[in-house]
Amino acid sequence: MKQYNGEKYILSFTTFGQRFDAAAKMVFNLLSRQTYKNIHIVMTVYKDDIANITENMRLLIDNDLIELIVADENLCPHLKYFYAMKKYWDKPIITVDDDRLYSQNTLLMLIRKYETLNYKSIVSNCATEMSATNCKLDPRDRWCVGPRRLLPNIKSYAAMAEGFAGVLYPPCCFDKLDDEIQNIKQCLYDDDLFLKVLELKQDLPVTQSGAIYEAICQTGVIGIDIIEAQNFSLAKHHDATMTYRKNVTELFEQDLLKAFNFPVESNKRMLKDLQ
């Protein structure tokens, strides 16, 4: 199993039994195609899934290409960030999904933007701006659509980073993750939205890495879906419907409404010197 060797960035993801082979494809693709190489790859898996690790995934682990973290508690998609952020709390962490083949500059887009910022910000390859009317959040299906994508190079507290496209989190983002376990369990299959709540608690804005999402999709910058993996999504398996996601939005509405009270240029935080 790979040990951390001073790499500048941590790349973190999670997967589960039926998607080990798809996740292995994603990692092989990252290792072979990404133009940025100075990363340490971490996979977090719930302990009950270890017995189902496939031969392809075992090759990655046994040949010291990825680090395996075994989680005692099944936090579902939140495993993508939770344990890696606790272990590598002082490093920038990039999260990706296990069901996509990412194009060669996906990581570079995030890192270039991050390294040019003079303030602390989440950087996402795709971000959606929330909307509110009369001090109440609009229904999620009204703002989680193409026209509400964040324009590039704008710092926004009302934007939600979308995990499928790749997201970069600066060091020391969330320093008390263990205190959030009960809140996480209330939105087990809506990690993007809950991460938005955590970001607002820490006064962290979101910046999109480059071109608007529709443009980068048309040029294939983000990558393509692994269809067989999406047939076994956790949300589908547990019947986490859009009604559930709507209820989660309502559950954290007061926290999310804070996004509309931050002045655009307020409370800038300087990036930690990582050189």
Structural features, described:
There is one protein chain. By secondary structure, the chain is of the alpha/beta class. The chain has a single domain, classed as Spore Coat Polysaccharide Biosynthesis Protein SpsA, Chain A, CATH 3.90.550.10. It is built from twelve helices and 13 strands. It has helices at 20-33, 55-62, 82-87, 106-116, 140-143, 181-185, 191-201, 213-218, 227-230, 234-237, 242-251, 253-257; strands spanning 9-14, 39-46, 67-71, 93-95, 100-102, 122-124, 127-129, 132-133, 136-137, 159-161, 167-169, 206-208, 223-225. A seven-stranded mixed beta sheet has the order 3-2-1-4-11-6-12. A two-stranded antiparallel sheet has the order 5-13. A two-stranded antiparallel ribbon has the order 7-10. The chain is globular and about 55 Å long. The two termini are 27 Å apart. The relative contact order is 0.16.
Q: Helical percent range?
A: 25-40%
What is the spatial order of strands in the main beta sheet? 3-2-1-4-11-6-12
Rounded to an integer in angstroms, the radius of gyration calculated over CA atoms is 18 Å
CATH class: Alpha Beta
What oligomeric assembly is this protein in?
A: single chain
| Terminus-to-terminus distance | 27 Å
Main beta sheet: strand number and arrangement? Answer: 7 strands, mixed
Helix/strand/pairing class, anyone? alpha/beta
CATH architecture: Alpha-Beta Complex
* Number of beta strands: 13
Could you state the order of secondary-structure elements as H and E? EHEHEHEEHEEEEHEEHHEHEHHHH
CATH superfamily: Spore Coat Polysaccharide Biosynthesis Protein SpsA, Chain A
Number of domains: 1
**Looking at the structure, what is the overall shape?**
globular
Number of helices: 12
